User: What shape does this take?
Amino acid sequence: MGANCEIQLSNFTDTGDSSNFAHLMELEGSKERLHLFQANLSEDGSFDSAIDGCEGVFHAASPVLFSVTDPQEELIEPAVKGTLNVLRSCKKVPSVKRVVLTSSMAAVMFNSNPLNPDGIVDEACFSDPVFCKEQEQWYCLSKTLAEEVAWKFADENGIDLVVMNPGLVIGPLLQPTLNSTSEMILNIIKEGRTDYPEYSVVDVKDVALAHILAMESPSASGRYCLSGTLLSASEVLKILHKLYPHLNHLQNIAENQHNVNPHPNRVSQEKAKRLGISFTPFEVSLKDIVESLKEKNFLSF
Assistant: This one.
């Protein structure tokens, strides 16, 4: 990896509006080493200029939407076509030695054969696109199809591809706006929402480190499941009450919940730990995101 960092801004970000990326320009060394490009995930060749001359490429751009009116246009096409466009640009550049793709546990865990209580999910597991479509799990479908085409293209074109499969990523916010994950935590705190399903959860700093190690470790290969724990919204609520006992509304909601015991993490951490990841305890991640929401004025208490 060279000393410079290039970030490709997709069609969801306008480089003419600095408010979209001002937080990136505040990072240490950004004025000397950060170069921004604008591109369109659905436009052929759009990534050529950013990737030209690179040794390593991280492809993390994909829509994260859980409510859509047109899943094909809003989720599936940008995820799949965007992935192929990035890989096609990488194929054109002889200097590219490795590509690290950000997939998701959504591309791992969703199929019609639920695990038994002692079952373990690992890197050999893939979500079933047919099942995702039947269940209208459009985000899961988009990530599953995008990873599927990525492996096929990489195999056919000799690209050294490593894939990260993180769960729900939580922790302090870098950007000044809410993303889907932080909004979910905010809804649990403000509204006492407990209707979210059980999620595989991982700290954002662990995910960032895993990507770096995947790029820099010669032995890194294949997929990596990144899951610190499995939790439901009810369990998150109870932990929030433990961390912030002065929030009376959390206490009242928590007392009305059935006793919930945290599930053992049914996602294998073995391969991620061999890569060098020590997973952050969930309580630490949760407190970090709450304090970050307070700092950015989304919460006040």
In short: The first strand starts at residue 5 and ends at 9.
